[in-house]
Description:
Number of helices: 17
Radius of gyration: 34 Å
Pathway: Amino-acid biosynthesis; L-leucine biosynthesis; L-leucine from 3-methyl-2-oxobutanoate: step 1/4
Subcellular location: Cytoplasm
CATH architecture of the largest domain: Alpha-Beta Barrel
Number of domains: 3
Subunit structure: Homodimer.
Strand order of the largest sheet: 1-2-3-4-5-6-7-8
CATH topology of the largest domain: TIM Barrel
CATH class of the largest domain: Alpha Beta
Distance between the termini: 53 Å
Domain Pyruvate carboxyltransferase: 31-305
Cofactor: Mg(2+)
Amino acid sequence: MLQNPASKYRAFPPVRLVDRTWPDAVISQPPVWCSVDLRDGNQALIEPMDIARKMRMFEQLVAIGFKEIEVGFPSASQVEFDFMRKLIEENRIPDDVTVQVLTQAREPLVRRTFEALAGVPRAIVHLYNATAPVMRQVVLNMSEDEIVELACSNAQLFKDIAADYPETDWTFQYSPEMYSDTELAFSKRVIDAVTAVWQPTPEKKCIINLPTTVEHSTPNLFADMVEWTHRHIERRDSIVLSVHPHNDRGTGTATAELALMAGADRLEGCLFGNGERTGNLDVVNVALNMYIQGVHPGLDFSQIDDIRATVEYCNQLPVHPRHPYVGDLVYTSFSGSHQDAIKKAFSARQEGDIWDMPYLPIDPKDLGRSYEAVIRVNSQSGKGGIAYLLESEYGLQLPRRLQIEFSQVVQREMDASGKELTALDLWNLFQREYGIDSARTPQYRLSGASGTVAISGEFCVDGEMRSLSGEGTGPIDAFVGALAEASGRSIRVLDYAEHAVSAGANAQAAAYVELRVDDTHVVYGVGMDANIVSASISAIVSGLARAPRTQMEAVAAV
Length: 558
């Protein structure tokens, strides 16, 4: 890299639009959306789509709700031409969808394009030619007058050929290619010259498309350009003002949003931002940004994983796991503090509440996602995430101190393996740690009166069946007394919690008992059974069985 990049690169000049209004504008309704996946997105692929993939993508775009779809560049190849013909001849275009095609400002290409469209009910024909100084002076070697003449002669050709197909409802579109690098005064001159040829009306508008062919400036400067153009071009009430952002600076989404605030009516882009170099505008991103501000975008992404699968198949390119709204990891928190906040917010939230969740700007369920991936556990995770997964997947509502205790067990496991733990991994570890998978249902009898309960029966203690009996103020007190007498150990219950895990004929109850054993160790025990007393007894046995293991680990740690 250069120590002085200014010796090679120049800063983008400001527009000096001192009375700009876009900073105070609010996006309160969706734009006209136009998908360019099948043209701009397709030409950027390592292996362009065949007809079968193009048809699958077209059908997906229709299902999402796009009403304008740029389906190809018919003069570019036979596949592009044949796909356009297939759509028309097989009546594949819904009545509320308008197809769009692109052509350069060259007469043979224009004529071939209209030939491909013969018989189409309605279509947008998109004309473009380069206008930026570097293109005029270096690539095309044409003067400003010659650029204007090129645009106007082809605009007239559009009118002339379209008149030969009166059965089609035509809309004309013009793009001053590299608008983002063209002087505003010259852009206006070309645009006004083209619309003077087409003579659009408020009832029959044309489209003027302003592309950031290469993104050079910050989004606010492009917004100034759009607002300037919006104010100054002629016949504005007869024009749909469109923008086509690219993403070279990584700010395509911001560019599009600020352009809408600056007066644009329409956006062109691709699903998940596919396109040349760093890509086109990601229309999904902009649409869902609107959605989480309370504005329905008019597009349906309620099954976003299915849409992603289609896009990955058609483009033969993966969608990044961190891609906004759709990536595998975008709703996932590994951080312990994040997980704790999410768990508490989910617990506090009531159905119908405004969505106000930490670290989750959108409800994943609105996009067809479950909450399963919201919290995942690795070495950075904490008790909140572990508790969330055990509750959401297995119905366990761990008391806070049990969460802390078990998180230490999980952390040791993570330190040893270095791998992520799934909800199933946590459940298996929980069962193993608290002896749930090996617990035997106790066989006992309860009796007593006048506030005293007697218990007697066969109980599994330390892996052996033992006959125990005792009395107390309740079943737990009676069993603890019997167990303490039989084992010769001091056992005291510090905390107790229980809840139903499931409902119906196969309902289970979970009991959590915090014990102080031998006045030296505090441990939790967990029991599960269809009977809550049996679950409580199993929890006490679980805690006692863990006390020696806890003691040995403490000695080993020292």
